[in-house]
Amino acid sequence: MTPGDRADLAERMVPEACHLAVLVHDADADAVAAFIRALDPDCVPALLVVLAALVPVDDRSPGDLLAWEASVPEAVKWRQMPLMAAALEPCPSYAAYRRHKTRGEDAEACGCGDAAREVWRERKRGKQQRGSEAA
Length: 135
What we know:
Blueprint: H1 3-26, H2 29-38, H3 44-54, H4 62-66, H5 74-77, H6 94-103, H7 112-134
Helix pairs in contact: 1-3, 1-7, 6-7
């Protein structure tokens, strides 16, 4: 699977991730279980990545993030477990470009803008190729 294919799969998982989030917050355990059982196993890794991308990574602990849910045991809910910082992708890269943009930093000086444009070109070529194969 090419990076463009992975990106396309992740993009297709965004609505699924949102649907699952709504189910987790508003539905019962049976509805969540039915959703999970219906998932294509090949899509689960992409769904996990998208869900992780939707979690705010700031100064809140996992206990704080779970505090909304009444069924989470108190021992877990209020435990102050710091999030582990992942190694940051170095410049120039698409991941670093996204980090710069999120922080309002200049992504051009370090070459991350060029790296992002190359990823976008590769994705576009992949979509065009898949479109011509389907025709």
